[in-house]
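note to self — DONT lose this again. spent like an hour looking for the file last time. sequence + predicted structure for the chain T wanted, 133 res
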Amino acid sequence: MPKIKSDDHRNLPLADWNVRTFFAYLTHLTAEHFGVEYAPTGSGSKAQRWQRESGMMKQAQGKYGNAVLKRFIEISVEEYAPNADYPYVSFTFAYSYRDRNFAKAQARLRRKRIKNVGSQHRNPNNLRKTWTI
């Protein structure tokens, strides 16, 4: 079986995502939702901006984990209202000014887990599997 590239967000398991995968995903969402190419914003050269965003993303990945970071990016893209000066949301902006979306992402994932656990317990086949000694 061929190795999946780290920027293949569609086929790489979420547990194996790294900063490169998250940027590929953010680039995909930016093109899909806003119709523009993603590039980091802020001051400094393009290389400095990529480096700064990579550091921020790596820090968020370490602090929150892959599932929460992915959901944070989705919420940030969904809630962003583009304008002429800022036609898409950058990770720098979301991380710096929309950090409340991390709590939203955590809460949504927690609700999803609770719902999934609840539906497993309502299924009699899963109960047998859970309680079999």
